Amino acid sequence: MKIALIHDYITAFGGAEKTFKVLTELFPEAEVYTLFYDPEIKKRFFPKTKIRTSFLQKFPAILKKKYQLLLPFLPVAAETLDFREFNLVISSSFSFAKGIITRPQTKHICYCYSPNRYLWLNKNQRTILWKNPVSKLLFHYLRIWDRQASERVDHFVAISKTVQKRIEKYYKQKSVVIYPPVKVPKSQPTADHPQGGKHEFYLIVSQLRRYKKIDLAVDAFNKLGLKLMIIGEGPERKRLERRAKKNIKFLGWQPDRVVNKYYKNCTAFIFPSEDDFGIAPIEAMVHAKPVLAYRKGGAIETVIEGKTGEFFDWQHSAVLADGIRRLRQNLLKYNPKFISTHAHKFSRERFEKKFKKFINRITAK
Q1: Which of 34, 107, 114, 208 is the most exposed place for a label (fewest CB within 10 A)?
Q2: Is the Cα dihedral 24, 205, 336, 266 positive or negative?
């Protein structure tokens, strides 16, 4: 079989890009596509991968950094890529990659992180982006295109039950759930460090984008005065740094070995956003750390209240601060071995086994 893999665009290295990288390693013989990529991100995370692109790769770099400006061109870019020679195409998509055109006999499987957030979910961002009648008309066209493009997919695979419900609601399509891969060590780590006292600090690992709600954590820790370490980059960094007090430190992007060190030594992990799945909380649980998460999205499928962490029910800094207080009160009640064992259920080995089994079943038909 001749196989192709395509991801929407590679301008950052978040959970979706981590999963796509695993797919490229799972199918090393596949040809790899994306609509456009950031050369620095490609060099850092996909150094040996030959990635074919659409005409958007020739656009100025400034446009690709503010990729919302490219929205009118993304459907066309997806449709102009040529997949006629492939028997199987796997799209890794949260945006427009699922809209590629294949031959009738080609199987198209979409590993879906979510129906397009700009078009269906993020009302506040839509208000900012589509202020005039022309923009509203474009938005209406993109929603029609996105709905019709979903019918080009033969089989949807959702990253969580949360996303599975969205696929059924917005695309009227059935899907199976295969959780994304999380890198876990073969041996379970032990919590051999103090949980509190002078070594106490809390951790966030995230892209610094508005919908990630990092500002809630900044405001909460400003009030509490507890130490918070934030790993990640994004357009919100400067604004958040101006907002934060001295007890909050921004470390920027860090390699895995450094991130793992912070996972190992932190007191607990903070997850304030409503995410489609959320790989970072599971990475923290791999290192036997409890998680405080917003009670929506993928977190309700991965965090067990009272055993692997706690929830807060309203995205407000005061409610988040109260959740941190509850988490601190329960620190000694959490079983590190149970937390780590639970996280191993989301391992890369489990993902590869389930995904291969699904592919084999589809192609056998």
Answers
A1: 107
A2: positive
Q: Which residues contact 97 (CB under 8 A, 6 or more apart)?
A: 6, 7, 8, 34, 35, 78, 91, 110
Q: Please state the domain count of the chain.
A: 2
Do 174 and 305 share a domain, yes or no? no
Q: Across the strands, what pairs with 175?
A: 156
CATH of the domain at 67: 3.40.50
pLDDT level of residue 122 (50, 70, 90 thresholds): low
pLDDT in tens, 342-352: 999 999 999 99
Q: Are 174 and 79 within one domain? A: yes
Q: Are 70 and 148 in a shared domain?
A: yes
What pLDDT, on the 0 to 100 scale, is given for residue 133? Answer: 75
pLDDT of 327 > 90? The answer is yes
Orientation of helix 348-364 relative to helix 15-26, angle to 10°: 60
CB atoms near residue 105 (< 10 Å): 6
| pTM (2 d.p.) | 0.86
Q: In what order do the strands lie in the sheet with 31-34?
A: 51-52, 31-34, 3-7, 88-93, 107-112, 155-158, 175-177
Does residue 293 sit in the same domain as residue 256? Answer: yes
Say whether pLDDT at 190 is over 60: no
Q: What is the pLDDT of residues 3-24, one digit of tens each?
A: 999 999 998 888 899 999 999 9
Residue 335 belongs to a domain with what CATH number?
A: 3.40.50.2000
What tokens appear for 192 in the block?
A: 């051999």
- Residues 236-251 have pLDDT tens digits of 999 999 999 999 999 9
* pLDDT over threshold 80, residue 193: no
Measured torsion, CA atoms of residues 322, 326, 328, 330, in degrees rounded to the nearest 10:
-170
pLDDT at residue 59 greater than cutoff 90: no
- Phi then psi dihedrals of residue 313, to 5 deg: -110, 0
